[in-house]
Amino acid sequence: MKTKLAKLALIAVLSTAGATTAFAHDAARVEAKQVIELKDGSTLYIFKDGKMAMEDRYGRATRMEPGAVMETGDGKKVTMQGDEVARLESLIRQGHDGG
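^ thats the sequence. predicted structure below, dont judge the formating
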């Protein structure tokens, strides 16, 4: 009985963790004009003002030099405009700390 209860508790915790991560990135996706999945597993956010930010494949806002060329999942090339790492970090954190 204890094993079954422990398994159910673990499933509940893991389910909540996934939902929290998805919610955290909702703010960034809403704020962005366009979201592009990159070939290396990163995600590029293009904001309404044309500036961009990049999230690595682990869900962390990461620095990218303006002018750097990235490849999209479908093979297109995109040139980085700006580096809104702090802006993206703030949006990602919104779902984690209630901000």
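The longest strand covers residues 32-37.
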